[in-house]
Amino acid sequence: MTRRCAAAALLLAVAASAALLVCSSAPGVPAVYVFGDSLVDVGNNAFLSPPAPRAAFPCGLDLPPGGRSTGGRFTNGYNLADIVAQRMGFNMSPPAYLSLTPQTSLNLLRGQVGANYASGGSGILNITGNGTITLQEQVQLFVNTKASMIDSGKLGNDMANRLLSRSLFLVSTGGNDFAAFTEGRVTIAEAPAYIASMVSTYIKHIKALYKLGARRLGILDVLPVGCVPSTRTWSSDGVCDAPANSLARGFNTLLRAEMANAAAAAMPDLIYSIASIYNIFYDMINNPQLDGLEEVASACCGGGRLNAEDDCSARSNLCADRDRYVFWDKVHGTQAAYKRAVAAMFDGVGAGRYTEPISFEQLVGNQVLLMQGPMVDLELQSVE
Predict the structure, then answer these.
(1) Taking the model in full, what pTM does it have?
(2) Active-site hit among 38, 105, 172, 298
(3) Is 332 labeled as catalytic in the residue annotation?
(4) Is domain 3-372 classified as CATH 3.30.70.260?
């Protein structure tokens, strides 16, 4: 499939999704458990001390009003985790784990709704993300969660395992680990060994989740890091950085191969889908008009060249029409881009290019009922 044809297929998925409301008598899975970085963090970093990055206003600018927090998400509205939960039929995005109290953790202990353990700035490797919750620590938090489900008496071990086996485990990580190249900690010559270490560590943590009961796994691969606005500022003409994109593709390719090998050898009951966030964003960037987008190089919120030399803050230059932009800030997509990405992940357009070996819709067993109507708003956990 050519990139233009794939982008056209993505447009069809987005157009179809615009006329669909995710609606069901019950969500398609009992719970969603989210791990990873700022593409899916819904507020854990709001509870961390500096130097962990925080999503300050105007992040969250386009979230629904009415007593709902605008903090915690590194975009202008919903992020990928929110929209996946929305597509699954949940009326509340799985809350940030660090936001939970004894009163608000009852659903989690019952194996319902789930929780979000992701931390903006974190990576696969423990050396990535100063002050963040590493992926290893996120998995350990889930170890504690499962133990609490059983120890609290809300669930027996067998029931906990049954609920977890039907739940969706969503992981988005790896992009921040590539900072090792720009910071000079890893040379290009060392790239193969470094990327191999990333992938082997990633697989180790996935195996740990499998041992804990995960059987339905959604993985988001790494963005075209050479095309994010901050990377474009490296060149005089603001084009994508080919070497950076090559590194990301190398990681994504190896991840697929090693994931297939590991599933066959050690995780026989695992059903998984790898969504190519790389290809989805690459096609949006190269054929924006097909997706109703216009600005693919500059950030909506920031400052300096391409609006991407300064972090997004209350003092930033802010674009007027966020729905025209692929990127919200230096590295994160807009809500508009994320909605298009999730549509492609679920609808199976560009099969083999956007998802493999199956789509997210197939991953959850086609249990989500789609009906005509506007997109439903999620209730958001406060992260004040």
Answers:
(1) 0.91
(2) 38
(3) yes
(4) no
